[in-house]
Design brief:
Length: about 950
């Protein structure tokens, strides 16, 4: 027998050696290119980082010196030594910047620049600044007309700053050149990579082509020989004994296969005859098996029906579905024609199979009588035989019988939980069948008990869910393993971007990472949640986090541990939305900041000029100038305080409005006449295109609205220009446009322009100043007048604010008469009028007493409520001037007002309230004649008293509140 030659050079090993060699060459080439690429990239990044550090030092140096120069200018402008100290304090920052430059300097130009900086630094702080401070102090803090100012703004400072800029630009050019060199090397590397890959691909294709040719031709010859063998023809198998690979082995295998086929052909013929004999024997066995299969199929059908019954019992927790499945499947198991099952509880649930509706109703109506009573009493199944009814017989005329089976379903306590009744016409129920069906009822009882337990637990679950959903905080229930098991609807609303399925049945840590991406301080939030998972939090511990999104929210979360007995079973996390409270706190902070800035500025002027007038002898014209400044700053301070109070009253809903018919044209003209005098750099134009200019409103508040808009038009056009006011009709509204040619408003700020404390954040507007309350007050007043305010603006081109009031086409005649009757004839000084002034502020009381006595009034002054009340009862004055906030130990103003008006002997005395509280509605309701809100000009009190007495005299003791000043 010829021995097979072993395979010494397999095709796979040949290809493997080629691929290993090719891969090694390819890998070496790629590694070389990658190493070279890493080197040029590292060189580029190292040089770039050096340049960026130098840039940062230069930027810091420029920023520091700019701040120093500005601070010193501020010191020479205002004389504030704290500003000067800030400038000197920044020397350390300059030295740090110089040191950074020295550390990074590697070029000659760097050392030259550092030398310039050090020389200028010594000159500035050792020479220039001390000289200027001496000049400034020698002039007693007055810088005006000082020749040192020009020296301070010398060319050396500008030259130094220019040298910083030039050095900065040179570093920019170095960075750009470094990037260009790096790009050139990268491009060269890419071309080298392309050439290397192309060369390797060409080499691989050449090797593969040679190998395919050496293997493909022998395989093709063997394939042709295989086709000839399969066709039953003789063929000579090509031999490749000279080869030592799989081709030689395949050739020898074909030879052996042909010989084996020929030897086995005779054996197959003999086996075929034997198989034919066995086929006859198998046919007989098949007939026996078919009979056995029929028996098995019958049993299988019974088992299938019982499985369906078990499936209907266990596959659903819906009571009605289970009942329907029970009655239908048991009918199939019993071969019953129809049946019914009914529960014996308060639900009266039932299900029927094969019954008419009226038959179901009849059975349920007699559920607690007749045959069912016997079933409940005995608690055992029984069967009865009866004649079929005509309806049951159908077309049959002979006598037929029906067999009814009554079966109880007993609960775990032995009570009848349900009853079943089944009827069939074929044959009676045997005792074995009845016993079998009673066993089936045990499974039904277990299923019904399971449904009852489920319904009870579902009721409790839904009740718990409804309770949780009524809570206004988001609630998370976490089990002892750290998995979220339940959340309420409020919690789902907090994270609208997160799907509801991702809120439950997930670990708390996984949920925390999911929502942490939308939280401002995500790391702190994750740390808190990790502490919750580890059980390291306390009930008193709180954590506040901010949710970013279309609607920003501020949430406070606290933790409560849940115990069942002494065992901890979970943790309850409560997420409370405190956005509004947080916004209120932010608003308070903004308010304090605004008040600190806006109120201290006029106070500083008042105190400063007052101190000058007290400590120095000034010329009369200088005194007049200072007094005028003090008066203007005091008015400004008063306006600011009034704005704050107006906002507070509007927010609390206590802002009172005295509405009447008001013509807006005179108000506009008076304001424009004043602005033409005070602001000569602006031109003021009024265009009126309608005669219907009367509105129903509070004249003072409408005047406040117009003054705010006119003031803004002038203030935000600091370079002058035209302020144009247009009055026109638009549908059912009378509108007023106030247009300026000033700074304009950025588009992104328009939606917030009427928000309280909001100010456009840019340097031009910050220099102008303001509280950010004016436009919010305008908006609130317009809403109270059923009107609106809107704005259109173009940056650097100006803004147009539009007021819209409901149009009044015709005035009410009685209102016109009332308005005409309000104006009083000119009043003259009275010398026979006794006035009692009740004011706890002694300085203000002295001021009012002096004002009234100068106008001829006889004045008694009191600060204590009880003393004032005794004086009123004793002297019965002609008029009372009453403050509301008096000494806490005595009666307040409201008590005095109420006591006077309830005294028959005193009720006709006019009482003029003089208070900082703007509660006019309450004052008039208690009987006040007039209500003056502090601060007000002292002469207004004298005028008000005279007008009040004149109206009283004309009306015959009938007091009418005056609206004239």
């Amino acid at each position: 027998m010829k021995t097979n030659k072993p395979i010494k050079k397999s095709i796979a090993h040949q290809y493997l050696r080629i691929m290993v060699l090719f891969s090694a060459v390819l890998m070496i080439g790629f590694i070389s290119l990658i190493v070279y690429n890493g080197k040029i990239q590292a060189d580029f990044e190292e040089e770039n980082e050096d340049l960026e550090r130098e840039m940062a030092a230069v930027n810091q140096l420029e920023k520091t010196y700019t701040s120093i120069v500005l601070n010193m200018r501020g010191y020479f402008a205002f004389g504030d030594e704290s500003i000067r100290d800030k400038a000197f304090a920044k020397q350390e920052e300059v030295l740090e910047s110089i040191q950074m430059l020295k550390e990074e300097a590697d070029l000659k130009e760097d050392n030259v620049f550092i030398s310039q900086v050090e020389n200028f630094h010594r000159y500035y702080f050792d020479v220039l600044v001390p000289q200027q401070i001496k000049v400034f102090q020698a002039r007693n803090g007055q810088w005006e007309d000082s020749p040192g100012l020009n020296q301070y703004n010398s060319e050396k400072i500008e030259t130094f700053l220019s040298s910083i800029l030039a050095y900065h630009q040179s570093k920019d050019l170095q960075i750009q050149q470094n990037f260009i060199d790096y790009s050139s090397k990268q491009e060269l590397l890419q071309w080298a990579m392309i050439a290397f890959v192309s060369l390797m691909l060409l080499l691989l294709i050449t090797i593969i082509r040679a190998k395919v040719k050496s293997i493909g031709q022998p395989l093709q010859e063997l394939a042709l020989a295989s086709e000839e063998i399969s066709a039953g023809r003789e063929v000579d198998i090509p031999k490749y004994d000279g080869r030592e690979d799989e081709v030689s082995l395949l050739s020898r295998s074909f030879e052996k296969m042909i010989k084996s086929i020929q030897e086995n052909e005779q054996n197959l013929l003999a086996q075929n005859e034997e198989l034919m004999a066995q086929q006859d024997e198998l046919q007989m066995q098949k007939e026996e098996l078919e009979h056995a299969v029929d028996i098995i199929q019958t049993n299988e059908a019974n088992l299938k029906r019982r499985n369906e019954l078990m499936h209907s019992l266990s596959n659903s927790l819906n009571k009605q579905i289970v009942l329907e499945g029970v009655v239908e499947n048991i009918c199939h198991i019993m071969n019953a024609d129809r049946g019914i099952i009914a529960l014996m509880d308060s639900t009266n649930a039932y299900a029927a199979f094969g019954l008419a509706d009226k038959e179901e109703v009849q059975f349920m109506r007699n559920l607690h009588s007749g045959m069912i009573d016997r079933l409940i009493e005995k608690k055992r199944a029984y069967s009865i035989k009866r004649n079929c009814t005509p309806l049951e017989k159908g077309y049959h005329t002979e006598e037929l019988y029906c067999y009814d089976l009554y079966i109880p379903v007993l609960s775990s306590t032995g009570q009848v939980a349900a009853v079943m009744m089944f009827s069939r016409y074929a044959n009676p129920y045997s005792k074995d069948e009845i016993k079998e069906y009673e066993g089936t009822c045990k499974q039904i009882s277990i299923s019904l008990e399971k449904i009852r337990v489920y319904e009870d637990s579902e009721f409790e679950r839904l009740l718990t869910r409804d309770i949780l959903n009524t809570i206004h905080e988001g609630v998370q229930l976490v089990d002892e393993n750290g998995v979220i098991t339940r959340v309420n609807s409020k919690m789902q609303g907090l994270y609208q971007e997160v799907k509801a399925a991702e809120l439950v049945n997930v670990p708390l840590e996984q949920w925390s990472h999911k929502v942490g991406t939308s939280i401002a301080d995500g790391e702190a939030f994750l740390e808190f949640m990790q502490a919750v998972t580890a059980g390291k939090t306390t009930p008193e511990e709180r954590h506040v986090y901010h949710i970013n999104g279309p609607i920003k929210q501020v949430i406070q979360v606290y933790v409560e541990e849940l115990y069942r007995g002494n065992k901890r079973v979970g943790t309850l996390l409560v997420h409370r939305d405190i956005t509004k409270a947080y916004e209120v706190d932010q608003m308070k902070s903004e308010f304090v900041s605004t008040v600190s800035h806006e109120l201290r500025t006029p106070l500083s002027s008042v105190l400063g000029f007052t101190e000058l007038m007290l400590n120095k002898k000034l010329k009369p014209e200088r005194q007049q100038k200072y007094l005028q400044t003090i008066y203007q700053e005091a008015k400004r301070l008063t306006a600011l305080i009034n704005d704050f109070l107006d906002v507070q009253r509007m927010e609390s809903g206590k802002q009172a409005y005295e509405k009447k018919y008001v013509d807006m044209i005179p108000i506009i003209k008076r304001r424009l006449d004043t602005d033409r005098v005070n602001h000569p750099d602006h031109s003021f134009i009024l265009n009126q295109s309608t005669e219907n200019t009367t509105v129903l409103g509070d004249e003072d508040k409408i005047t406040q609205v117009l003054n705010n808009l006119f003031s803004n038009a002038v203030k935000y056009s600091p370079d002058g220009g035209e302020v144009k006011v247009t009055v026109f009709e638009n549908e059912n509204n009378v509108c007023i446009d106030v247009k300026d040619q000033g700074l304009g408003i950025p588009e992104d700020a328009l939606e917030n322009i009427f928000t309280k404390f909001y100010r456009v954040d840019n340097s031009d507007r910050r220099k102008i100043g303001g509280t950010g309350l004016g436009l919010s007050i305008v908006s609130e007043i317009m809403k109270a007048h059923e009107g609106s305010v809107s704005v259109t603006s173009e940056l650097k081109r100006g803004s147009t604010f539009t007021l819209s009031f409901p149009l009044i086409l015709s005035k009410n005649t009685e209102m016109e008469k009332e308005s005409e009757n309000v104006s009083l004839e000119p009043v003259t000084n009275r010398v026979d009028v006794n006035v009692i002034v009740i004011e706890d502020d002694r300085n203000l009381a002295s001021l009012l007493q002096t004002e009234l006595e100068d106008n001829g009034f006889q004045v008694l002054q009191y600060t204590n409520g009880e003393d004032a009340m005794h004086a009123i009862e004793q002297y019965k004055p002609d008029t009372i001037v009453l403050d509301i906030m008096l000494d806490e130990t005595s009666m307040n103003g409201w008590e005095i007002l109420e006591k006077v008006k309830t005294n028959p002997d005193l009720k006709d005395i006019p009482i003029i309230v003089s208070s900082a509280l703007e509660e006019k509605e309450k004052g008039f309701s208690l009987g006040a004649t007039e209500y003056l809100v502090k601060p007000y000009p002292p002469h207004k009190l004298s005028s008000t008293i005279l007008q009040t007495l004149l109206k009283k005299e004309k009306s015959g003791q009938i007091l009418v509140p005056s609206s004239a000043e």
